[in-house]
Design a protein that fits this description.
Layout: H1 5-18, E1 21-22, H2 26-42, E2 48-53, H3 55-61, H4 75-85, H5 100-112, E3 114-119, E4 127-133, E5 138-144, E6 150-155, E7 158-162, H6 181-190, H7 193-216, H8 223-228, H9 234-250, E8 257-258, H10 264-281, H11 285-306, H12 314-329, H13 334-348, H14 360-379, H15 395-409, H16 411-423
Parallel strand pairs: 2-3
Antiparallel strand pairs: 1-8, 2-4, 4-5, 5-6, 6-7
Helix pairs in contact: 1-11, 2-4, 3-16, 4-5, 6-11, 7-9, 7-10, 7-11, 9-10, 9-14, 10-11, 10-12, 10-14, 11-12, 11-15, 12-13, 12-14, 13-14, 13-15
Length: 424
């Protein structure tokens, strides 16, 4: 199979667009970014604020710590951080450089200014509208579908910027629907390392650093540390590192992460197990880069059909992709990769997403374990076959079934999860 130049460039561009750094869980950070952008346009610190958000934003912000706020959680904290100290020019690193004195100002702002939060009925799973009010003026900024995708800026009844509905994703240049496993495998073998080295090396450096942080200190439920107490083999270490990164990130660690499919947890899940296996096997940098290219694109391919947010846990897609990257390190061919995907998806596709919080680390460990088991099954000549539940013949068909499950089948599950979380 030969990749034409256009598809080659598309795959490189997808990696550039998706593998970007973010400080903090991306849903609260999207709120901080939106609020910071609105404040810049209002040009004064607002006296009150209306925050309208879709259910999945409520779900994913409720229980996670906002970085650089000394442990604050929730929508109001994320918005206040953006208003008081955010730098919108830094996108998903909008509150990465908050100073100590600004943390006090964030708490002071929360105490002295009214921030109203309302659920937003929307056809978009990711939808944020923030309106900031001064004495006699206001600014509204809206983000849809992607965490930094501003589609509307309005000031005092005047539209300053707008995108038509069909152009909501104009900032995402490339078409993810061109991805397929056969071409991803071929691209991973043929890609010029110089085209992807900077992107992938940053992922290795950033995600490895936060994993070490998660193991060294007390974060969340310390899933990474718990796993390492059960053994020190490479499988356990691979799961522990990915979990430890999530332990730290969900508890407000200020270190940045290189994300995948809009998620830091998915970015760590897809990369850290492969990095650890590469160390174990003494794989060259070139081999590690190619395995990570493969895994990142496989994760993105799976999430394209599901969407950024869902009741379907994104760690499942990333853990499956990590299993494929590990298989690649061992010399796995296209057939091996395809079977690893189908096997691992058959194991863990029922894991729900009930928001960002400490238990994400445990779900990550289970998903990585399924990815590795899917590969080990292939080595033993074992497989889940056409007709076994949602598994059907052909890896692309099984991926489509999982996307259907996550995007359509779990819609009502998503609503019920949000009801449960907001009724507590």
């Amino acid at each position: 199979m030969v990749l034409d130049f256009k598809k080659y460039q598309t795959y490189v561009q997808i990696l550039k667009e998706e593998l970007v750094p973010a400080t903090g869980c991306t849903e609260p950070i999207a709120l901080s970014y939106c609020a910071s952008k609105a404040r810049d346009i209002l040009q004064v610190k607002p006296k009150r604020c209306l925050v309208e958000v879709s259910g999945n934003i409520i779900k994913n912000v409720k229980s996670v710590v906002v970085p650089n706020t000394n442990g604050l959680k929730g929508i109001e904290a994320a918005v206040a951080a953006g208003i008081v100290a955010g730098d919108a020019n830094k996108a998903l690193e909008v509150i990465a450089n908050i100073k100590d004195e600004e943390i006090f100002k964030i708490k002071e702002y929360l105490s002295n200014h009214f921030i109203e939060v309302k659920p937003l009925e929307s056809e978009h799973i990711l939808d944020i509208k923030i309106t900031l009010y001064g004495d006699d003026e206001y600014v509204l900024v809206r983000i849809v579908d992607q965490h930094t995708n501003i589609v509307l800026i309005e000031k005092n009844n005047k539209i300053l910027f707008s995108k038509e509905d069909k152009k909501y994703n104009d900032n995402i240049v490339t078409n993810r629907h061109e991805l397929n496993i056969a071409d991803i495998y071929e691209f991973s073998k043929k890609v010029e390392i110089t085209d992807i080295k900077e992107i992938i090396k940053r992922q290795i450096d950033y995600n490895s650093a936060i994993a070490r942080e998660g193991l060294d200190k007390n974060y969340g439920a310390n899933i990474g540390s718990v796993l390492l107490k059960t053994g020190n083999d490479v499988v356990t270490r691979a799961k522990a590192l990915a979990a430890a990164g999530s332990d730290a990130r969900m508890s407000g660690c200020e270190l940045p992460v290189v994300i995948n499919s809009g998620s830091g947890n998915q970015g760590m899940t897809v990369s850290l197990p492969i990095i650890e296996y590469a160390r174990e096997l003494d794989v060259s940098d070139d081999g590690l880069y190619r395995a990570l290219v493969l895994a990142n694109l496989i994760a993105i391919h799976q999430k394209t059909g599901i969407g950024r947010l869902s009741a379907y846990c994104g760690a499942v897609s990333a853990g499956c992709a990590a299993g494929c990257g590990i298989a690649y390190l061992y010399g796995g061919d296209y057939k091996c990769i395809a079977h690893t995907i189908v096997n691992s998806l058959a194991i863990t596709s029922g894991i729900i997403c009930d928001g960002a919080k400490s238990s994400c680390a445990a779900k990550i460990a289970a998903s990585v374990d399924a990815g590795i088991l899917g590969y080990q099954m292939y080595l033993e000549g074992q497989e889940f076959k056409d007709g076994d539940g949602i598994v059907v013949k052909g890896v692309e068909n099984t991926i489509k079934n999982v996307a259907r499950l996550g995007k359509i089948g779990m819609k009502e599950t998503d609503k019920e999860i949000i009801k449960i979380m907001t009724d507590c």
